[in-house]
Amino acid sequence: MPQTVTCLAVSFVLSIGVCRAQSVLDSILDARPHAWWGAMVTEVSTGDTLFMRNTERSFMPASVTKLFTTAAALEQLGPDYRYVTLLYADGNQIARTLQGNLIIRGAGDPSTGAPGPDRMDLFNAFADSLLALEIHEISGHVIGDDNVFDDIPLGADWSWEDLVYGYAAQVSGLTFHDAIVNVRVHPTRPGAPGRLSVTPELMDYFILRNQSVTLPRGRPLEEGHARVPNSNHITISSAVPLGNSDPEELAVHNPTLYFVHGLRTVLDSLGILVRGRSVDVDSLPAKLDYQGARVVARHTSAPLSELVATINKESHNLYAEHLLKTLGVEYPDPEEDSAPGSAAMGVAAAMRTYAAANIDLTRLQLVDGSGLSRKNLVTPAMTMKLLRHMALHPDTSISESFLTSLAVGGKDGTLEYRFTGNAAGFGRVRAKTGSLGNVSSLAGYVTREDGSILAFVIFANHFQGRHSPIHRIQESFVNALVRHYN
What we know:
By secondary structure, the protein is an alpha/beta fold. The protein folds into 3 domains: 7-80 and 305-484, Beta-lactamase; 84-152 and 254-299, CATH 3.50.80.20; 162-251, no CATH class. 28% of the residues lie in helices and 23% in strands. The chain has 11 helices and 21 strands. Strands 3, 4, 5, 6, 15, 16 and 17 form a 7-stranded mixed sheet that branches. The chain has a 6-stranded antiparallel sheet with strand order 2-1-21-20-19-18, with helices on both faces. It has a 3-stranded antiparallel sheet with strand order 8-7-14, with no helix packed on it. 47% of the residues are buried.
């Protein structure tokens, strides 16, 4: 039987109409009886629980996992934490030539060369620093050092079907352009191959096989993308009707080398000659020795508070995975038998935050930072404790960074097209969404008219069919909160 709050139990703390509200919320979830529902509503400041259903059952949270990752990162690293990527010259400069290697030492910054018109600015800045030193030639290699993290590029139990797509991009201590390439198929004439456009224009890093076809106007778009494992051999087989196009973010293999390749391309374009090769540090026969190398340029990221907002508003998987591994770098657990820059060490470090939130760690199972893994298991009650812990955090810079990082109903992020129009939750809901096959989650906060805050968690697992009916139920549930608990 579902766990619920009885009218007798809440009559001492809630106003008239609670029983009716309880009944309304139950009936909303019961509209999809074959879904496995877990839900909880709590008044943040008092801790009064207004609604419960299966609160101690384990659910796959999907991207609601990001709430756990970002909460731990904000609390332990701090909202002002920044990544610093360093460019080293390893060798002596003779006249206009660096007699040695150029090394980029990654710090795990997920945002370097972020997609957009400024994506090459970092490379241009590095090149300008070399030119300012009158370095016009590199006799050695351009080396990318990603060893701040371990060499496991994917999360535990990620589906192989996802790995070609940008939302399952590979994790590396040195990354560029979200470790993705944007490929768009433009129709030409019916029966003929489509035309491909690629961003960024680093075509020599990929081998693209164009098997796309143009369809007559009015036909449905059929997407087709594949990448040979452990390579950048990508096949595009989409069927695109006239009047349409097929844009896709595709994951690249070896983000470290992708970064190095991009930098070298810019160096070449600005007349800085590189005699050696583009190199991933893992292909070197010996460990890099920085003794004697000098820093010639550095890049500092935006503060963690901004990166967390990208994660939670846009549900950015790569950023979340980087934050988890960064926790493992900065705060390794000496009792954890894992590498400092691994996801497992990141989870071990994050557990300190979850313990502070009074979460039962013996039942909490997290294996990645983004929620792509179906091995993540949390309960509504655990998630509620985390939400209250962050909303009531004694460091207001942490609580404010967490709350403002969430998407706002009807306005931005993953909630831009939800809670729209005359929805009661429009502009009053801040929440994190989550979606996997047969999984839909929503967790966050609702602000009441008197300024007090309700926290809510709604998990749906094991349903069949499309997500949109589940979304409507979740939105109806939250809208009912606004109407009945004001």
